[in-house]
Amino acid sequence: MKIGINGQRLLIQDPAGPERYTYNLINALAKLDRDNEYKIYFNGEPGKEYFSQLIYSNNSFKPVIVKSRVSWTQSGLAKELKRNPVDVFFTPVHTMPIYRNKKLKVVGMIHGLEYKFVSKSVSFIKKLMLGRPEEYLARKSHALIVPTIATKKEIIKRGWVGENDPKIYIVHEGVGQNFYKRDEAEVSAVRKKYNLGDKRYLLFVSTIQPRKNIPLMIQGYAEALKKNPDLSDTHLLIVGKKGWGAEESYNAPKKFGVEKNVLFPGFLPDEDLASLFSGAEAFISISLEEGFGLPLLEAMACETPALVSDIPAFKEVGGEFPLYVKPNDYEEIGNSIALIFHGGYKPERIYGAKLRAQEFTWDRTAQKTLEIIQQVAENA
Questions:
Q1: Which of 204, 221, 223, 226 is the most buried (most CB within 10 A)?
Q2: Residue 25, burial from CB neighbour count under 10 angstroms (0-12, 13-18, 19+)
């Protein structure tokens, strides 16, 4: 069987959740499957060392460079799939070619429907297009993969897929093997690298954008410092690249009087994140909506307490182990932050979260995804 994978976003700088998902899935598939042939479609030339690591030196995986001056998906990729057809095309980036060979089977992946939080900041034309690629993929794909029950319910609620339609599958994402509790030397080294000294800190990890509710998270942190003077020497470390509409988040520390306590180091590599998780008092995310919640899972694997909003995706990933708060209640957030700094997060929760995180592996994600691809191919 010939399988094509949309790798359009693999080469972008500072990869976020969907890009990390695509990389880890391909890497796990390459370890698992040496029977099928794979084509990975790039919009640029991948480095030899990068590609070798990506495909785990599996010669069944080949790079295909697709160039296009207009729409990469609707022009360049569409032409490539017609000229050199595959049996099944898998796309993890919410889009697929409209014009394609009728025999082509498509498996789509929708990570979440957070696009609705973008609508306030875009032009009228772009606003009209928000959600259209996701809807088209949901309706026209032969199988649709989502990471959580929460995302499945949202898609069904919109009427894109019927409630009893068997084409939609829930396949959880995984946590990389490099995310585990690091020793004191590694934590000390990363503290020195980012000038944290010996101060205690909370850690947020994600792209900085309005959906992440960062201003209110900062307000909650400021409330904790106001009520607990002993926490005045702590930090809130906000790690992630700048997204759209980030200005309010960057201005929030000054607005709430904690500009000396809140740090924005930008995007950081995975090798540093595991150590930062390990040294943190807690991982914190008061996000308004998530499709999955990969940083939460990584924090759990690193034995880091977690303080997160009580949204469906976080509850599905974290189970009973994180400390949940209402994402619109800065006082509750502040009280919970103080509780964690004062030792109120019990060790049993940390251990339970670690065991739960071990259930989420990229090998399992790849195995289930391959089974879906094979099922789609067999139903040709």
A1: 221
A2: buried
